[in-house]
Fold:
Amino acid sequence: LEEAFWPCRFEIFSAEQVIVLDGAHNGDSAAALARTIKEVYPGKNVVLVFGVSEDKNEELILCELKSLTREIIYTKACHPRAKAAEGVSQQFNSFFIDTTKKTGAGIDAH
Structure:
């Protein structure tokens, strides 16, 4: 188990300019992500790049993540079930003070 690796589960994509990938897709996994970020990077400025599938509860996910940051970039994955960035951003702008709306690709981790 010590050697186990789950892609996009607190995967450090870049250490130079810290980029962490995580596929948190429900409230429990988002809460675990928030706890881990606070533990590993205490007091660090976090910018959240957020995209979600149509069938996920983005309100529950964002409620768990909102304590991490005041800035969010909404994006849409290149997947048929991905929710449009504009739909998410309109619903959750009140969670974040400085909200940036972006559409298109987020990070290409291929």
User: Anything to note?
Assistant: The CA atoms of residues 49 and 110 lie 17 Å apart.
